[in-house]
Amino acid sequence: MKRAIAFLGVVFALLTTNAQRLSEAQLKEKPVFTSLEEALKNPDEVYRLKLRFKGDSLPEEIFQLTRLQELHAQRCKLAVLNSRIGELQNLEYLNVSGNHLVRLPESLSRLTHLKTLVISRNIIESLPESIGNLQELTYIDAWENPLYALPESISNLKNTLKTIDLRQIDLRDSELERMEELLPYTKIEFTSTCDCHDNRDD
Question: What is the pLDDT of residue 2?
Fold first, then answer.
């Protein structure tokens, strides 16, 4: 009986979470908050947030904004992306470009409504192994990262991921070919391939 009640509670929570999400047209009508302090005054009305701060990680208070669908945190000097990012399960757009990130947490895979992921101009060497869980993801901007390989699970997105931007990354022919095998229907944007054996380790 307790298990049944717990299961119903989870189902209700999921339905409630989904009901909070706005359509694209509705979202465009919502203001973009640029002050976390202002956003926290009425968190249920915050769907779009553009952070303007400098710090190693996202402020913990941001995870009170459970209806957030659009988050901009570019050029904030982030060294890590909080593992709690997975709590913002309504996120559809995440921009953490121009930071100092070297990896993304596996909890990113909980953002099952994420459509756009912008991680350009970081120092990210790999995507989470579980990225294949993001079945609504259509665009990844990974421009100018040392990202020379993609996880096997990304092949789960071969029919949904429309574009991945890998420009300004020195890809070898073999690396690009492997990516094309994993994502045969995805547009892979790249600057050029190179013979990079002298520039980096295998």
Answer: 46
Q: Which residues contact 18 (CB under 8 A, 6 or more apart)?
A: none
Q: Tell me: the pLDDT tens digits for 156-186?
A: 999 999 999 999 999 999 999 999 999 999 9
Give the H or E element holding residue 3: helix 2-20
Distance of CA 2 to the CA centre of its chain: 36
Q: How many angstroms separate the CA atoms of 24 and 118, rounded? A: 18
Reading the block at residue 176, the tokens are 């690009």
Sign of CA dihedral 149, 150, 151, 155: negative
DSSP string, 39-96: HTTSGGG--EEE-----SS--GGGGG-TT--EEE-TTS--S---GGGGG-TT--EEE-
Tell me the domain boundaries of the chain: 2-189
Q: How much of the chain is helix, strand and coil, in % rounded to 5?
A: 35, 10, 55
Under the banding of pLDDT at 50, 70 and 90, the label for residue 201 is: low
Asked if residues 110 and 84 have their Cβ atoms less than 8 Å apart, the reply is no
2-189: which CATH architecture? Alpha-Beta Horseshoe (3.80)
Task: Give the integer Cα–Cα distance in Å for 17 and 68.
Answer: 11
Instruction: Indicate the pLDDT class of residue 194, thresholds 50, 70 and 90.
Output: confident
Supply 60's token pair: 């913990």
Whether this model's pTM surpasses 0.85? yes
Segment 51-79 shows an average pLDDT of 97
